[in-house]
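Quick one, T. Sequence first:
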Amino acid sequence: MIQAKQNRPDGSFATADLFAPHPTIPDAWIYNSRADSQLTLITGKKFDPAPLEDAISISPLLDDVLIFGTNRPFPGAMLLRSQGASHMTDQELLDAIKPAIEKLNRDSQDHARIPHDMLVPLPHQEPLEKSSKGTLIRRVAEARFEDIINRAYEDQDSNQSVDVSDEELPQ
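Structure tokens:
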């Protein structure tokens, strides 16, 4: 007898796939996303960045998008330029995709909204790492861009820091 792979005490196998009840078919389920693709912010709020990444990366100016924010207060997004957008400045790229980002933010949950100053344009480069199914291998991509992600949050901290003397504090 061939034993299937097991990862639970009862001998069953739990995948990281997440399903939701089908909106119109009773007792049916539809594939929603994967648990390992969920971002969990420091607040404990969770969201699936894949639909947002897909919606942003539709732009012909971008080859790929990586939304990041695990264990952080809010998300950010790395924008990997397409070859056709390599001549654009960062500001030109941001201005061109601004309407799409604003629409996504209006339609998203509060905790999944991406602040404009957390959009990180990157030059055209190797595409993000994908699985054989074409889904983003998030951990590998986040490790590849760890320094850039950390810098984005450090820039946020330095832009929002204000020195206040002890005398001014009560005011």
